Amino acid sequence: MPDSASAQSAPGMDRRRLLGAALFGAAALTGSVAGATTARAATSASVPPSSAPVTEERARAVVVGTGFGGGVTALRLAQAGVTTLVLERGRRWPTGPDATTFCRFATMDNRSAWLTDHSVIPGVDKTWTPYTGVLEAVAGDGMTAMCGAAVGGGSIMYHGMTLQPAKEDFAASIPVAAGLYDDLDRWAYPTVARALGISTIPYDVLASDPYASSRLFESTAPAAGLTPFHVPLPIDWSYVRGELYGQYDATYTTSDIAFGVNNGGKHSIDVTYLAQAESTGLVEVAPLNVVRDIALDANRRWVLSVDRIDTGGNVQEKKRIVADAVFLNAGSPGTTRLLVKSRAKGLTPDLPDAIGTQWGNNGDRIYAWIGMDGDIGTQQGGPACVGGRVPDSAIPLTVVHAGSPIQQPGVKAMSVIGFGLVEAAGTWAYDADTDDAVLTWPSSGDAALQQLIAARMRALAQAGGGMMIDTNAEAPSTWHALGGVPMGDAVDLHGRVLGHHGLYVLDGARIPGSTGACNPSMTIAALAEHSMAAIVRQDVGRVF
Questions:
Q1: Which secondary-structure segment (H or E) carries 183?
Q2: How far is 292 from 337, CA to CA, in rounded Å?
Q3: Which residue positions in the chain have pLDDT lower than 70?
Q4: 113, HSE (Cβ side, Cα atoms, 13 Å)
Q5: What is the dihedral of CA 396, 198, 525, 508, to 10 degrees?
Q6: Which of 270, 354, 347 shows the shortest CA–CA distance to 95?
Q7: Which member of 21, 49, 120, 306 lies 3.0 to 4.6 Å from 413 by CB, making a disulfide possible if both were Cys?
Q8: Predicted pLDDT of residue 366
Q9: Closest CA to 426 of 498, 354, 331
Q10: How much is the pTM?
């Protein structure tokens, strides 16, 4: 059988139709994107700064961002008795059975994208009025990074893969933190698992009709040299069963979850860590607050320049927030851009030279498996519930299957995604013309890993029939951006920015490039748990 190939290998099918079918499924897992340059340019507010009022606020602690690092940080500060302001650029997205909170693939609209006038999904030719939607595409040289923009961060639209790396793989990804693993394994990873309520797919759900493609992947994996496993997920499976029994409109069972899960039942950060933090009465979450700059004032307090916007991106208020401590959790691109800007503009003296370095894509690669021999059914259930590992791989890697929310007539297609360890070779540099930091990613950073992933994809096609198409060959993208403010060189093992009291980085920006052949979410949260335990013990009442 052909291995990875061009569309011409599929009789009677043009390249655009084939890739369209493939990319719909791929985008549902990882946000494979188009039009990212425009997406970055469109994030500026449309109201001139002089027309918006300016207010000043004082805070003891400010958390920037509400994803896995931010949610953990906010809760642990609150439990330590620290009044905390949490700033989030996105809006809240409440869900529930048969809710219409998020747009669906078939009726995609401006809720899908962060302040762009067009879709960022390949093959979707739609324009609209810009809106504070859930996904931002940050375009760089050689790589596009997809970033969540919502209360709950990337936990809103990710599939939910909650994977703990093996000790040796963790050490290979983050050598400077290798000594932390035993503590993480003993209590931090289990704490995250309990907070998110993770479990694997029940066998009755996996045996149902919508999960035929998952069963096909699982049965084919051993012949391709993969050891199959069931992915731990933060899902209340009663909601999935409700769809199977016709109680709810299909969402999970059609994998129509790329922009968020309408039916609820997903234990995302907004309904777990953040909800618990807010329940203390000590945490205020402020949506639609965009942090533009961070500076250190003459009194060595942290000053945040913030725009409060409406859902069209128009500035309603400009804020100057002065804080004793700032915890940056805006995601790898967001946190890195803020600090690269702060250093380049002289807003914070003596920031570490390593800021803007050691960035990576977690090895993400999205393939479309086309024309396989087995039955994949008429719809593909999610989230991504089955995967495979390669024992004794020269570079640790993982392969998972994600269902496609759109089935193209006459095309048997399913998405298969690989990721693993990479060289953290990416860098960010300040661009004065746009007042932003820009990513550069050399293809050499993950070249060796991609050869191994490609070989495994060929093995799957050989074992199960059909062909594999590398959908990232011409436009590499990642949903798992990591690094830019690396541990050891820019922050210490507990996220303290070197040489700067009261400034912390507790998100994926401090992880150099990859997380042990796993989705990064669980490791980001576990490291945040571990770091906050030390910060509460050592810094609360002393540094802030």
A1: helix 181-183
A2: 10
A3: 1-50
A4: 33
A5: 50
A6: 270
A7: 21
A8: 96
A9: 354
A10: 0.94
